[in-house]
User: What shape does this take?
Amino acid sequence: MRLLLVEDDNHVAAALSAVLKRHGFDVTHARSGEEALQALVPEGPGFGVVLLDLGLPDQDGYEVCGKIRKRTSTPVIMVTARSDVRSRIHGLNLGADDYVVKPYDTGELLARIHAVSRRTVAEEQVTGAEDALRLGPVHIELPTRRVTVDGTVVQLTRKEFDLLALLAQRPGVVFRREQIISEVWRTSWEGTGRTLEVHVASLRAKLRMPALIETVRGVGYRLVAPAA
Assistant: This one.
């Protein structure tokens, strides 16, 4: 797997690159946000995962993550010393697929890399008779991950789309919070509960349909199909 390591500390990058290469990764090292963005151009080699340090010399790592997500769906794992829940939520809301806090265990980091890679491959391989979902004015194209409302494209983050697609596949069915977190975030991390609330609020705002996703108090959420 090709992996893009975005890290401004050469010593840290060299040590981590050596470990990753021993485990079969083809590592490209970017020392700044701009180098990372240049490596992720459409005509570039393509990467399976991006490991993104937040303390970069030229741009804030969060800003770089937002720019990455606008140009590619490549999984992004943030690697940082910022351990507070607010920082984690902010990173996930920007489209990061995972968030690893320094100092970390190398084995855990490798497991997370493989986990996000497996999820991405599984998503890309999903096929079925129903490639699109229509819920009143909302149209969800599963293969292209494109959402429109009354014909207007709505820009969603990776996790926002995953959440909407999950609920939309079974309108009216209540999904437990734990089930949503498990299926969308693939984790049972307790801090993800607040992230789920943020994503639901963001979806309601972006779709301009606050009643589309109903909160079932004490249980979870369900999608209320609008009138056609």
